Amino acid sequence: MTTHHLVSSLTLPEALMAFLHADNGRPFETARPQALTATAELAELVVAGHAHIEDERVIVDAPAVGERDWVTEVTSALAGHPVGVASWIKQRREALAVQQNAAATAGVLNYDRGKLLGLFGYDRHEVDPEVKQALTDALCGPDAESDPRLPALARLLVKARLHSRHEFDSGQRARLQELAERAERTPVPRTATRVIDVAVGYAIYTSITDG
Length: 211
What we know:
The protein is mainly alpha-helical. The protein has helices spanning 3-9, 12-20, 33-47, 69-78, 85-91, 95-106, 129-140, 149-159, 170-181, 190-209; strands at residues 52-54, 57-59, 83-84, 109-116, 120-127. It has ten helices and five strands; from the N terminus they run αααββαβααββαααα.
């Protein structure tokens, strides 16, 4: 599979993994990684038509059978059981690990073990540079607005300020901000942009108040 086709096949949370991880293979703590990843999962469900949002509650009408096991698992659990966006984000503690594994399977991340101070082992997920570059090119390209996942990804990156943590040039940052702002006028469902705004705000707020 070419890098271009790989990028087009990624879910929103898998694409997020390319920008959520620093060069040391660990997630940025700008916005709580677990909550931010759960936000991307929820936005993916909305973009894919598996869920919708009413009064800041997640509504799933029926389980979805997709290419990703987590989609089936989550929609099966939520079908007929509406839950508040903030509550679901808080409860979805396994989101980061699930999407790191999915991104590794998809070729976005490479798993390894690192050592802190040469003594303490930790999981390291290194981003494939070609995939990250291909995603950057897609986000900043002329056709970005035609793919609902790209404006949603831009909105996630900008709202969580991850776009300032990577080596984007000034033109790329401006393009990401423009794409994020225009998300509601692209094929992204309006409820997807709303859930991103609400959930990222929750993630940032809780990471601050929890110290």
